[in-house]
């Protein structure tokens, strides 16, 4: 059996960066196992039927999801997890979270790194890695020129309100393709090859970034890092392959859980398409299954399969939802037009970048959503009350997303909303900030991951976010303001799309799970050649959208393994 130089589990930010860098060092000797499917241009589902089946569910994982999740197996894009005080949304697919994320690339301010971060991992030491990632991912603000189609009313409204409130607002860098020439954007809808050879379309402003960009205008990882790994450095990528177990082997390649990895590992997987199980041998394993996936896999290896018994007792500790909080202002008197343009374009600072207050530090971003949602009509019904209409939409959407079932009422709900024409004056506030980062990821009695989130410890942050939303709503004379209904008493439940932690970097095994020493950066204490490269190694909430930081850290993990300094041209 072939022994790979490296097997990488997962193809999100950490996995794709690792694949590219390690395959450059060892061409043709790197394998990526990814549980989700590939999404070529135009393949992201859109019809109500296809959207309703675009979820991830494996019957054996059902205990991490609500009881009423249908028992049949689906390998769709959205993986939704329900827990006591924190739900989570992650992606399954080649490219991981980049397929559904909102493209924002944001470096946190220096003071974030002053508490809870290893000394070996200072802000200053990470600076060059942020620069490399920013260049590869093509981060830039939305282009500003005379073309009226590049005017985004939502951006203007958020900036206008920030100014009125004396808050700093700026355009954020987004990883979206507007052509290869930064100063002269390619005309909207025109296709060209990006600098790595993948074909992309200059963004068409459709606001569908969070459901998969069918024109490949998002700079998703399968169009840069992973594209180069496969096409230039011959990395093998196996979609629909779910890693089950990691076992150290002895000098004759036999499974031996008493070994510490010096002879390599065997990774067991299931081919979800064929329904067969198999295994591969590798000198090293990079676990990049995302914060929830990585913690679950390692916890199961330590506590259920007992193949990696020496992993630190700190595994699963210091989990953070990055302060995520969603709220809405409805029927404002200034147009926001949330269905136009990339889904996030600006951020307003609330004590994160300036006037830093650790307990109330967050940013407010403008969230858009697809126009097709507004036309998701199955019939017209009169709008008796706009709030009732919005409530119906939220209820139906939550049912669709969190219960994985279409109520069939979402069309009615949107038609009620549209009839009152409140969509144009609606603002969606996406806030994130410095929560306490004191959650725990642990296995339930079925051996599946669950989040224990002590939400009360982060109330000062959530209350500050609610105050900001109310103030914004007042400014635009919104008729209603409300937080995501999950937050309403007695649920007090957040939804995170930015889960980090659980395998945190540290200067000593006493404080974390993975090493922050530059020569073994990301290596799991107690195991040679076993690395974590994804959101799980981030030691605290970063306040900003986290992929810039995750990616910078993962470039550093790869540098430690390959002893090759990362470059912008891959
Ligand atoms: C709707 C949404 C919007 C977002 N917007 C932004 C944004 O604008 N900016 C930002 O910075 N962040 C954003 N994020 C967060 C961002 O997507 C994540 O922080 C990021 O993807 C995490 O990267 P990762 O490498 O840790 O893991 P992921 O990107 O989650 O990748 C993990 C991969 O591992 C695979 N996997 C899991 N388990 C296994 C297994 N056992 N075997 C094989 N494969 C496995 C998964 O299918 C997945 O592809 C957003 C997230 C969501 C959901
Ligand atoms: S706005 Fe539309 S075209 Fe542009 S990146 Fe988002 S989904 Fe793609």
Describe the structure.
The chain is α+β, with helices and mostly antiparallel strands and 570 residues long. It folds into 2 domains: 3-375 and 425-562, FAD/NAD(P)-binding domain (3-Layer(bba) Sandwich); 382-421. Helices cover 23% and strands 21% of the residues. The chain has helices spanning 13-25, 48-52, 123-136, 153-164, 225-231, 290-304, 371-374, 386-402, 410-419, 459-475, 547-562, and strands at residues 3-9, 30-33, 56-57, 74-75, 78-81, 86-91, 104-105, 169-171, 173-174, 191-193, 199-201, 236-238, 241-248, 265-271, 276-287, 317-320, 325-330, 346-350, 362-367, 427-433, 439-443, 449-452, 480-483, 494-496, 500-502, 505-506, 514-515, 530-532. The strands form 8 sheets. Strands 1, 2, 12, 13, 14, 15 and 28 form a 7-stranded mixed beta sheet that branches. α1 runs parallel beside α11 (547-562). The longest helix is centred in the last third of the chain and has 17 residues, at 386-402. It starts with a strand and ends in an 8-residue tail after the last helix. Bound molecules: flavin-adenine dinucleotide and iron/sulfur cluster. Flavin-adenine dinucleotide (FAD) binds at residues 9-15, 33-36, 89-93, 96-97, 100-104, 210, 242-243, 288-291, 293, 297, 344, 497-498, 534-535, 545-547, 550.
Question: Quick gist of this model?
Answer:
The protein is an alpha+beta fold and 570 residues long.
Q: What's the arrangement of secondary structure elements?
A:
Blueprint: E1 3-9, H1 13-25, E2 30-33, H2 48-52, E3 56-57, E4 74-75, E5 78-81, E6 86-91, E7 104-105, H3 123-136, H4 153-164, E8 169-171, E9 173-174, E10 191-193, E11 199-201, H5 225-231, E12 236-238, E13 241-248, E14 265-271, E15 276-287, H6 290-304, E16 317-320, E17 325-330, E18 346-350, E19 362-367, H7 371-374, H8 386-402, H9 410-419, E20 427-433, E21 439-443, E22 449-452, H10 459-475, E23 480-483, E24 494-496, E25 500-502, E26 505-506, E27 514-515, E28 530-532, H11 547-562
Parallel strand pairs: 1-2, 1-15, 2-12, 6-24, 15-28, 26-27
Antiparallel strand pairs: 3-4, 5-6, 7-9, 8-18, 10-11, 13-14, 14-15, 16-21, 16-25, 17-20, 17-23, 18-19, 19-20, 21-22
Helix pairs in contact: 1-5, 1-11, 3-11, 8-9
The structure holds flavin-adenine dinucleotide and iron/sulfur cluster (SF4).
Iron/sulfur cluster (SF4) binds at residues 176, 203-209, 213, 215, 217-218, 342.
